[in-house]
């Protein structure tokens, strides 16, 4: 019995000594502030910081982890794992920075500590966000709807402070046609109070207008700037002249062309006035000037047009003599369209006159071997006027020639104009042919002159130029030629020469009677023939003869033999 008692006492002693040893090597967490950390009232856009320390009252190093805080709380330093030596402290700084109004609650959580008695430690965090809070009433878009052009409409929006501190900012003026009637500049609104801004729209013309009122430098931390959208639709009458109104401006806004007339002839032309707006259109159609020869047949005087309605106006031109004015003006005045209070219409009542058109206005034959004739180049004269055109002469006014040689340029006339004067009716044309045969080397110039009864262009000059080149042997050119390819399409023949040193190619066409009907030429090795004769008329289907002439880069010439060609479209 005594031996058993002694053994029990020995075991209990061993256990007690083990516990004392374990307690001597244990970490012990202690916070300098155990209760809730209250930051009190914090103004939005600012912050308040509080400090708390972790102390290790144990005999072993203290370890643990500090969890991330939820907004608006943050740890300035110390987030994550930590270690504190026995008897030491670990300082934490906690910040509350609210971005909105309201009470915020969170917790500082210290977890996974090696303190066997306190593995987790939690401290409640409290913060009350205060400050101004801007609200726009009734909405952040102001719609004026339809506003008559030339009048104004006012609309209000309200700035309300739903915060706990004074709301401050600046209201800036919008762009035209909007303006601020009330509320422009800085404001200071106590908590719970409102501030009224009055905006005006004055549309200068029809159309949709859109801009914003900007509210700047607001001391609301989460809304430092606000944009208030403004919408306004300008309505009113809108005058349109048909056909061909040129729109805004001083005019003329429309031109009425009576065409070519003779004394005593009556010509009437009409135009329409249409109201494309949303309000009644009013105005007055004045008597045209000069009167005569111009007068109003119908539609003149004061008028009122409902939206979408049209009014037809008929104007007359009647020349009494050939000396009457042929240009006049018709004015529509007193129009209640604010951006077009007046419309001007030009009246043209033209006397019938011829009008000459010459193409081309110049001819360059390019390089041509001295003493050899070039391909014929056509000059077309057309009467684009409204009266007969008389050609009093077409001749070479400048045409150099040498002592032993004839003139450089030659002119061929059409069959219908062998003697002058020649008459072209409106729309008719005549084709003249010009050919160059240089009598010396270098650039040689000349001039084709056309005289007519065109009142504006009685004389038309067509400059001519050719460059004479050296006489050269054709043997080199013949050796360089490789072949000729002819391809016919529906409306053209294409000639393509293969070989080296080809400077130009010309083709002369003859009918079965041996009469020359066309001649064309081109620089380079490619030529296109539109299958038209000297008069510009299409060649009929059938058999024709042609001769190809080649020109080398050195000026040498080779004239091929006569060959047959069948044209089938």
Automatic annotation (TrEMBL):
<dbReference type="InterPro" id="IPR053879">
    <property type="entry name" value="HYDIN_VesB_CFA65-like_Ig"/>
</dbReference>
<dbReference type="Pfam" id="PF22544">
    <property type="entry name" value="HYDIN_VesB_CFA65-like_Ig"/>
</dbReference>
<dbReference type="InterPro" id="IPR031549">
    <property type="entry name" value="ASH"/>
</dbReference>
<dbReference type="InterPro" id="IPR013783">
    <property type="entry name" value="Ig-like_fold"/>
</dbReference>
<dbReference type="Pfam" id="PF15780">
    <property type="entry name" value="ASH"/>
</dbReference>
<keyword id="KW-0966">Cell projection</keyword>
<keyword id="KW-0963">Cytoplasm</keyword>
<feature type="domain" description="HYDIN/VesB/CFA65-like Ig-like">
    <location>
        <begin position="139"/>
        <end position="224"/>
    </location>
</feature>
<dbReference type="GO" id="GO:0005737">
    <property type="term" value="C:cytoplasm"/>
</dbReference>
<keyword id="KW-0969">Cilium</keyword>
<feature type="signal peptide">
    <location>
        <begin position="1"/>
        <end position="22"/>
    </location>
</feature>
<dbReference type="InterPro" id="IPR033305">
    <property type="entry name" value="Hydin-like"/>
</dbReference>
<protein>
    <recommendedName>
        <fullName>Choice-of-anchor D domain-containing protein</fullName>
    </recommendedName>
</protein>
<keyword id="KW-0732">Signal</keyword>
<feature type="domain" description="Abnormal spindle-like microcephaly-associated protein ASH">
    <location>
        <begin position="37"/>
        <end position="112"/>
    </location>
</feature>
């Amino acid at each position: 019995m005594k031996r058993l008692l002694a053994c029990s006492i020995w075991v209990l002693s061993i256990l007690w000594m083990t516990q004392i040893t374990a307690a001597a090597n244990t970490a012990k967490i202690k916070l300098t502030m155990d209760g809730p950390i209250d930051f009190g009232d914090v103004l939005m856009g600012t912050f308040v910081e509080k400090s708390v320390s972790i102390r290790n009252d144990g005999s072993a190093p203290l370890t643990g982890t500090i969890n991330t805080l939820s907004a608006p709380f943050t740890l300035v330093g110390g987030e994550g794992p930590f270690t504190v030596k026995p008897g030491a402290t670990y300082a934490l700084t906690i910040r509350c920075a609210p971005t909105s109004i309201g009470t915020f609650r969170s917790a500082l959580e210290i977890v996974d500590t090696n303190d066997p008695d306190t593995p987790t430690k939690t401290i409640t965090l409290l913060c009350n966000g205060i400050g101004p809070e801007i609200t726009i009433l009734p909405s952040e878009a102001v719609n004026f709807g339809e506003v008559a052009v030339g009048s104004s409409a006012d609309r209000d929006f309200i700035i309300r402070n739903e915060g706990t501190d004074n709301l401050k900012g600046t209201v800036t003026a919008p762009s035209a046609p909007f303006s601020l009637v009330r509320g422009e500049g800085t404001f200071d609104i106590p908590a719970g109070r409102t501030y009224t801004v009055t905006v005006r729209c004055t549309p200068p013309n029809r159309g949709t207008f859109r801009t914003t009122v900007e509210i700047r430098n607001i001391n609301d931390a989460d809304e430092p700037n606000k944009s208030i959208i403004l919408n306004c639709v300008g309505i009113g009458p809108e005058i349109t002249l048909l056909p061909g109104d040129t729109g805004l401006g001083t005019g003329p806004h429309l031109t009425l062309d009576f065409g070519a007339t003779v004394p005593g002839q009556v010509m009437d032309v009409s135009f329409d006035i249409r109201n494309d707006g949303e309000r009644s259109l009013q105005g007055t159609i004045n008597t045209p000037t000069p009167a005569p020869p111009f007068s109003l047949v119908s539609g003149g005087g004061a008028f009122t047009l409902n939206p979408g309605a049209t009014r037809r106006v008929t104007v007359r031109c009647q020349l009494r003599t050939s000396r009457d004015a042929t240009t006049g003006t018709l004015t529509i005045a007193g129009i209640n369209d604010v951006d077009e209070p007046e419309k001007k219409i030009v009246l043209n009542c033209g006397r019938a006159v011829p009008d000459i058109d010459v193409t081309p206005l110049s001819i360059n034959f390019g390089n041509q071997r001295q003493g050899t004739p070039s391909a014929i180049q056509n000059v077309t004269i057309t009467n684009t006027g409204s009266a007969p055109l008389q050609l009093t002469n077409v001749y070479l006014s400048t045409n150099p020639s040498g002592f032993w040689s004839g003139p450089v340029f030659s002119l061929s006339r059409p069959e219908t104009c062998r003697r002058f004067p020649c008459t072209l009716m409106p729309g008719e044309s005549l084709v003249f042919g010009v050919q160059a045969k240089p009598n010396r080397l270098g650039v040689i110039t000349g001039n084709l002159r056309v005289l007519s009864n065109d009142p504006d262009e009685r004389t038309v000059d067509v400059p001519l130029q050719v460059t004479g080149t050296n006489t050269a042997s054709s043997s080199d050119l013949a050796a360089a030629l490789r072949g000729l390819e002819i391809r016919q399409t529906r409306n053209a023949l294409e000639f393509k020469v293969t070989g080296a040193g080809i400077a130009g190619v010309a083709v002369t066409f003859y009918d079965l009677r041996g009469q020359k009907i066309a001649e064309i030429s081109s620089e380079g090795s490619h030529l296109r023939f539109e299958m038209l004769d000297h008069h510009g008329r299409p060649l009929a289907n059938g058999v024709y003869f042609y001769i190809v002439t080649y020109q080398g880069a050195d000026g040498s010439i080779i004239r091929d033999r006569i060959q047959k060609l069948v044209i089938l479209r």
